[in-house]
């Protein structure tokens, strides 16, 4: 492999970490998932709108070499999505067996309704709202 | 070693050298504590600052979110003070001599080094002495991810001592609230039951605020806002008037002066200078189409949130839909959104604009939060 080809591959790899291309990858990943879920129409809608816009912005930021970056990025995302789906197909049954083995009652119980804190309580101050926010962040982090 | 000897001397004698006991040790003065409310916007940031324990606002500035790195080879004296880095309006004024860098894209930090330089500038604005301890509440887009939040924390490490990150639309509600009227009968507290639409440069954030801190499901952030409208208008201009040579900055200025939504307003004749010559371009459809695209993005998110509100709160909620941010300056945006809701059968909707302080509400809410935050709620920035 010549040094020119190695440099091109490196440049491609570096470009993919720039924000416009990260966005392109994210949207294309979503299109791949939608297609795998059988939602072809929705996938086409995203491709025609969000993906087209993201690619246009990335091309504008990139200049030359955009086509090769785009091709490589799309191939990589297709592979990534396929790998994730294959992994999930193996993992989900495994987790289901393990979780049902640990606590059948819990595994079968429906998720509790989203709790809403009391509204219109005039005594609640800004610090109380901040407490709510921090509690949500901790719950989301778990 | 010096010894202290005090002797009685005759009046005519020369005074002898004496050493005095060292002064009593005093504790070093504690640095002043300054609180900042910061709306870090993609195009414009707003900073409000004031001393802790006071309601005074000592700094209130809107700063274009841009850093200008002076190009190599610029002759001494061209740049004031021969500075190497310029910020905000000063950077834009000297755009021929600097490399302009926007630290944010779509509401989040995309250029960490420039973001850090920008934060240093914010600190300098708030505390010219450089001696105060600063705690800041910083607005973040609704549902900002952990990477975006971590980038903000890193950008202020060593600059602020403590930080709190709070979603912008909630801060807008806090800032918009008239605290002096909260207990008045008939005053509708925006924090109790309202829907805020904050249209900035990078994102349009919608948020249900109903007396509790909004959850993820109560907030929608759309990466389509002022910058996306600029882009559409730019593309449309290049289609209609090829090789017009207008810069994105000029296109934005045209948009900000003439933006509208709703039916086409023609003719909209705009005078611009192209290649040194004055030209008149008719931009009615171009401006209208670009701005109406924003409505098409916002409206589905608006109805999604309305439909998620509880049935006993939604009628009042519909009366309290508030548009803020730069997008609130688009002519007709309140009327058009209200009409669409009415046409779609929603009960007596009322959409209003936040008013002339639209640029400051997020920062005002952030400063209020900074003043109210308890000690254990702040995040300590190490380093």
List strands and helices in order, with pairings.
The complex is a heterodimer of chains A (142) and B (383).
Chain A: H1 3-15, H2 19-36, H3 40-62, H4 66-102, H5 104-108, H6 126-141
Chain B: E1 33-39, E2 44-51, E3 59-64, E4 67-70, E5 85-87, H1 88-93, E6 98-101, E7 104-105, E8 108-109, H2 112-126, E9 133-140, H3 146-155, E10 162-167, H4 168-176, E11 194-199, E12 204-209, E13 219-222, H5 226-240, H6 248-258, E14 269-274, E15 277-282, H7 284-308, H8 311-318, E16 321-324, H9 333-343, E17 351-353, H10 361-372, E18 379-380
Parallel strand pairs in B: 1-9, 9-10, 11-16, 16-17
Antiparallel strand pairs in B: 1-2, 2-3, 4-5, 4-6, 7-8, 10-18, 11-12, 12-13, 14-15
Helix pairs in contact in B: 2-3, 4-10, 5-6, 5-7
Could you explain the architecture of this structure?
The complex is a heterodimer of chains A (142) and B (383). Chain A has 142 residues and is mainly α. Chain A is built from 6 helices and no strands. Chain A has one domain. Chain A is extended. The two termini of chain B are 41 Å apart. Chain B is flat and about 65 Å long. Chain B has 10 helices and 18 strands. By secondary structure, chain B is an alpha+beta fold. In chain B, the strands form 5 sheets. A 6-stranded mixed beta sheet of chain B has the order 3-2-1-9-10-18. Chain B has a 5-stranded mixed beta sheet with strand order 13-12-11-16-17, sandwiched between helices. A 3-stranded antiparallel beta sheet of chain B has the order 5-4-6. Helix content of chain B is 32%, strand content 23%. Chains A and B meet through helix 6 of A and helix 10 of B.
Summarize the structure.
In chain A, 79% of the residues lie in helices and 0% in strands. Chain A has 142 residues and is an all-alpha fold. Chain A has one domain.
Q: For the record, what CATH class of the domain at 184-224 and 295-353 in chain B applies?
A: Alpha Beta
Strand content of chain A: under 5%
This entry's quaternary arrangement is heterodimer
Instruction: Count all strands of chain A and give the number.
Output: 0
Tell me roughly what share of residues is in helical segments of chain B.
Answer: 25-40%
Count every helix of chain B, treating DSSP H or I runs of 4 or more residues as helices: 10
Q: Number of folding domains of chain A? A: 1
- The number of distinct helices of chain A, counting runs of at least 4 residues, comes to 6
Mean pLDDT of chain A: 73
Question: What share of residues are in beta strands of chain B?
Answer: 15-25%
Share of residues in helices of chain A: over 70%
Low-confidence stretches of chain B: 1-17
- Estimated structural class of chain A: mainly alpha
Q: What is the CATH T-level topology of the domain at 184-224 and 295-353 in chain B?
A: Nucleotidyltransferase, domain 5
* Reported CATH architecture of the domain at 184-224 and 295-353 in chain B: 2-Layer Sandwich
Can you summarize the main beta sheet of chain A? Answer: none
Structural class designation of chain B: alpha+beta
